[in-house]
Specification:
Strand content: under 5%
Number of helices: 3
Low-confidence stretches: none
Distance between the termini: 44 Å
Structural class: mainly alpha
Largest sheet: none
Radius of gyration: 14 Å
Helix content: 55-70%
Shape: globular
Amino acid sequence: MRTRVQVPIIALLWFVVGIIVALSKSYEVHNTSQLVTFVLTVALWPIPVLGGTLTVQF
């Protein structure tokens, strides 16, 4: 028997908006630190929307 994984609609919307914000702010993924920055931007999208920046450097 299969069980369904239910994702709350608010969480889904949060990540969709985060992806749109990250792409609109031109966050690119060419190496590991840029990938981590992109993921953080998706999760913490209100920061770039309000004018802040997220950058992770290794």
